[in-house]
Structures are given as structure tokens and as C-alpha cells.
Amino acid sequence: MVFKCILCQKESCYYYNLCSKCERIKDYLSLYDDRVYEVLDSVLSRDKDKQENKVNVEIQKEINDKEVSLKKKKQKVKFASTD
Ligand SMILES: [Zn+2]
User: Fold this and answer.
1) Are residues 42 and 59 located together in one domain of the fold?
2) What is the pLDDT of residues 26-70, one digit of tens each?
3) What is the CA(7)–ligand 1 centre distance, in A?
4) How far is 83 from 70, CA to CA, in rounded Å?
5) Parent domain of 56
């Protein structure tokens, strides 16, 4: 039996009530929980060209955070090896 996806209401589904694209959203929700809503709200509430800027800023912010945590881990290893 064919029916419409319960989330997007556009794509046809055959075995499951979510289409493959909406299935990905469900996977993101299980991985990132409320972060998905925060990202959608902060990005999609802007004009299309500003959305691109926001995505780039967020990506750069995450890269910076990861670099800081990597540096901290390296320092801990340094201190541990001098003991
Ligand atoms: Zn869908």
C-alpha cells in the first residue's frame, strides 16, 4: 500500500510512514536531540543568503570548539607524561 509521508506530506512511502529524507531527520533527532530544533530555528528563520552565512559561522564555531578541546587533551597528556 502506498501512502504519503507523515512528516513532509509530499513523498510516497511504501513500507514505513516516513520517506527516506524524513527518515534522516528522525536519525538526526535521535543523535542530537533538541540541538536539531535549535539549528533549524537559528538557520531557517533567516533569508536564504543569510542562512548560508549562519551555517558557515556555526561550522567555524564547532571547528574552534573542537580545536580548543584537542589542545586541552594534548596538554593533559603532556602533564601526565612529566609526572
Ligand atoms: Zn517525508
Assistant:
1) yes
2) 999 999 999 999 988 888 888 877 888 888 888 888 899 999 999
3) 5
4) 21
5) 34-83
